[in-house]
Design brief:
This protein is mostly helical. The protein contains ten helices and two strands, in the order H-H-H-H-E-E-H-H-H-H-H-H. A hairpin with a 6-residue loop joins strand 1 (62-65) and strand 2 (72-75).
Length: 186
């Protein structure tokens, strides 16, 4: 099964409300993936100090080293994610050293746990072909649409070697094929 981006904004909202209702930590995790395009393995270990300065202001950039590539990633946190983080910080009493996505066992939640909870929400929203990469793919898909098809920047953000790889990754090729099948009908 190839995981797909979430192409329906109503389904995105459904999934968010389901996750946030279960635990605001999962709502934030979902929003983090949708608003940054990061891999789940790069989101889970994020600490408060990665986002906030010591005096409680947002850092200009979230800077991290990607686990898969070892490359440094610099992300400007958008207003939608800032709003979600502020809301979360009001609920939790976190220190600079705390993980945003802490586990009851200590440390941060793992990939398997995050997959399980995200998958449960996807099923509740009626989303098929969902995996943790769906968040990253959804960011790419909607960024591609909203940026008037600026595939070069998305390709660079994902560290892909070709536009073809990026288009396939974010599901645009499939959308175009689906459109072809509806053009001719006998």
């Amino acid at each position: 099964m190839t995981v797909e981006p979430i192409r329906n904004k109503a389904k995105i909202r459904q999934m968010y409300y389901y996750l946030n209702g279960k635990d605001p930590k999962y709502g934030l995790l979902f929003k983090f993936g949708l608003n940054t395009g990061l891999r789940i393995s790069d989101i889970l270990p994020i600490k408060v100090k990665d986002i906030y300065t010591n005096n409680g202001h947002f850092r200009e950039y979230l800077i991290l080293k990607e686990r898969k590539t070892g490359k440094e990633k610099k992300i400007k946190i958008n207003e939608a994610l800032k709003k979600e983080i502020k809301k979360y910080m009001k609920i939790k009493n976190l220190t600079q050293e705390d993980y945003f996505f802490s586990s009851k066992k200590g440390g941060h939640i793992g990939r398997v746990q995050s997959y399980r909870i995200l998958r449960e929400a996807a099923e509740a929203a009626g989303i098929e072909n969902f995996g943790t990469h769906s968040l990253r793919k959804t960011w790419g898909y909607w960024t591609y649409k909203m940026s008037r098809h600026n595939i070069g920047l998305i390709m660079d953000t994902f560290n892909h070697s070709s536009q073809r790889i990026t288009l396939r990754y974010i599901g645009i090729n499939q959308d175009q094929k689906d459109e072809l099948y509806s053009l001719v009908q006998f």
